[in-house]
Design goal:
Shape: globular
Structural class: mainly alpha
Order of helices and strands: HHHHHHEEHHHHHHHHHHEEHHH
Number of helices: 19
Number of domains: 1
Distance between the termini: 25 Å
CATH architecture: Up-down Bundle
CATH topology: Amino acid/polyamine transporter I
CATH superfamily: Amino acid/polyamine transporter I
Helix content: over 70%
Strand order of the largest sheet: 1-2
Strand content: under 5%
Low-confidence stretches: none
């Protein structure tokens, strides 16, 4: 089956933190505050995102343990293989591939959307057609495509360049949010009373909070980009857990500061009623003028850039790992002769994402909403694998893999399983605040059918690989060993 290829170990700890944070924070933190407040009110959103962050941290315990024990590309794909075998590994990898690439595409389209708000006369040119009520312009396709090309190039050049760039963008994003919060907070026209009422009048506080907790997998997706790059750490893998936790703390802080800043700048109910294209952008420009809007735009751009960069990295490493295991064509496993990066996997991610702007943003949102299911499934497999590997006590039946006795970590892994199940149920139960729309369910069904077809085509070849060989190709060792 050939020799297992190795990626260069160039990622520094601060770059990995920036990958986790930047991937978790995208356009939504800066564009969606008014929409979220319409659902849950300012306090409901803040409590909901805080609870969501805590639930993600529970799941992150499993990630931290598995990254430490198995620092290889592929992340959840590899973890599923460890605990449940090759079929479940394929399921996880298939869903994650779509999820990651969809988010790359959404971030690319967000750049065009931002330009459309700030420079409408520039973007609204070369009208082509309308899909699902969304006018598609040639200019926004060009803007999105250029962004994808630039970040694809950065990733091909290697993690030394893309990691350093990610860290700079993440710092600028954090500083932008802090400065914006201080400017609004000290402005004489801002008022803490604008936050009231704390919740919408047409629903209970509990329902309001749960409606935000339900979108936590979407809001915080990105910290799981860290295990995809684990093979490229230039530091001990055990540090990854604290880097993920630190990224989640910062992500929750950014979400909540943007809600707080938007809600004290003007009465939030009036913002909801007025129905602006970009409520936060409108209220910041109205209160602080062009300088305030400029800071907001820079922070938003940094969030989108870090999302693009982080998910191109995550997508390409997942494709690379699946190619090494002979699930995907070997072309995705080829490394650049100079930069030692999976350049074909990067090019594929960029190329597929470049099609998205042609279908309009509304159609893309359907696919991204559906991808929340894939992410939640990946969380479930990761938590289960962690639970599977820990022992309650020394008296358990001895399994060569179960070398660590830690009832506390096993219990936390169990909580991670429960949290992941809750996220999945919220997506599939009718009446749930996160219930997938008809279009998203159709997209999910199509992806499942495609996955089944692809699996049955590749099944014979995939299953013919000996266990020791597949262990080596996925984990770098002929035996599955915890470290």
């Amino acid at each position: 089956m050939g020799k297992r290829k190795q990626l260069s170990k160039t990622l520094k700890p601060q770059w990995v933190w920036a990958i986790a944070l930047g991937s978790a924070i995208g356009w939504g933190a800066f564009v969606q505050p008014v929409n979220w407040m319409a659902e849950a009110g300012p306090l409901g959103v803040i409590i909901g995102f805080s609870i969501g962050a805590l639930l993600m941290m529970v799941i992150a315990v499993s990630y931290g343990f598995l990254i430490k024990s198995f620092p290889v590309s592929g992340g959840e794909f590899a973890y599923s293989y460890i605990s449940l075998g090759r079929t479940h590994a394929f399921i996880t990898g298939w869903f994650l591939t779509l999820g990651y690439i969809s988010i790359v595409a959404l971030n690319a389209s967000a750049i065009a959307l931002l330009f459309k708000y700030v420079f409408p006369s520039l973007v609204e040119n070369m009208h082509m057609y309308t899909i699902a009520g969304w006018d598609v312009y040639g200019t926004e396709i060009i803007i999105s495509s250029l962004a994808l090309i630039i970040f694809g190039y950065l990733n091909i050049k290697g993690t030394s360049l893309s990691g350093k760039t990610q860290f700079i963008f993440a710092i600028l994003m954090v500083l932008g949010v802090i400065v914006l919060t201080l400017m609004v907070g000290f402005h004489p026209e801002s008022n803490i009373q604008h936050i009231q009422p704390y919740f919408p009048s047409d629903r209970t506080a509990f329902v309001a909070i749960i409606s935000i907790v339900a979108i936590a997998p979407w809001a915080y997706v990105g910290f799981d980009a860290v295990p995809q790059a684990a093979e490229e750490f230039n530091f001990p893998a055990r540090k990854a857990f604290m880097l993920i936790i630190l990224a989640l703390v910062f992500a929750a802080g950014i979400y909540n500061l943007m809600i707080f800043t938007t809600s004290i700048a003007a009465p939030w109910e009036s913002l909801v009623t007025e129905g602006h294209l970009w409520g936060t952008g409108h209220v910041i420009q109205d209160l602080l003028g062009i300088p305030g809007l400029l800071i907001l735009v820079i922070a938003l751009l940094m969030g989108v850039f870090t999302g693009l960069n982080g998910f191109i990295l995550a997508s390409s490493r997942l494709l690379f790992a699946m190619s090494q295991a002979h699930i995907l064509p070997k072309v995705f496993g080829k490394l650049h002769p100079k930069y030692n990066t999976p350049y074909n996997a990067i090019l594929f991610t960029v190329l597929i994402s470049a099609f998205a702007p042609w279908f309009g943003r509304e159609a893309l949102v359907w696919v991204v909403d559906m991808s929340s299911m894939g992410v939640s499934i990946a969380y479930l497999y990761t938590a289960y694998t962690s639970y599977y590997l820990f022992q309650w006590s020394e008296n358990e039946v001895v399994d060569p893999l179960k070398q660590v006795v830690s009832p506390i970590k096993k219990f936390i892994s169990l909580l991670g399983i429960i949290a992941s199940f809750i996220f999945i149920l919220l997506l599939i139960i009718p009446g749930s605040p996160a219930f997938l729309g008809v279009e998203s369910r159709i997209a999910l069904l199509i992806w499942i059918v495609l996955g089944l077809i692809f699996f049955f085509v590749k099944r014979k070849e995939y299953n013919s690989i000996e266990d020791t060989t597949l262990n080596y190709l996925i984990l770098g060792d002929k035996e599955i060993k915890m470290k």
